[in-house]
Design a protein that fits this description.
The structure is a single chain. It contains no helices and 9 strands. It has a 9-stranded mixed sheet, with no helix packed on it. It starts with a strand and ends with a strand. It is 0% helix and 36% strand. 34% of the residues are buried. It has a single domain, classed as Metal Binding Protein, Guanine Nucleotide Exchange Factor, Chain A. By secondary structure, the protein is mainly beta. It binds zinc ion (2 copies). The site of one zinc ion has 4 residues, from loops.
Amino acid sequence: MLIEFACRRCGARLSKPVERRELEPLPRVSGREHYTYGPSTVVAGATAVDPDSCTRAGAAATWVINPLDGVGLRPHTDSSRLYGCCRRDGINGPNLLCAGCGSEVGIEISDCWTEHDIRLLSSAVTVEQVQ
Ligand SMILES: [Zn+2]
Ligand SMILES: [Zn+2]
């Protein structure tokens, strides 16, 4: 079954169609060469819900998607959310906004010492079934 994520506030689409899988957390990711991308928790075309509070999300459940599947997202307008060594570590809270209405919908994690994922906040997105 394919699902898509949409913004809870304005309904804009936030992902390509993705297939729900069980979460298989990555082994702990550590530092490597600057400006390189880490492994992704889910392959493109898949998603998994992480019921455990993601500390980056302020202790909220998140859906993990591959960064290739995110659409209609833009960086946060508050630059304090965009910290990271080479890209984004996501530690300062949600750093992705819905491009449609500007609400906080997700976290890009893409730094040189992290995995490479997008986490969508369960509280900010809706899950829609795709035919
Ligand atoms: Zn770096
Ligand atoms: Zn929106």
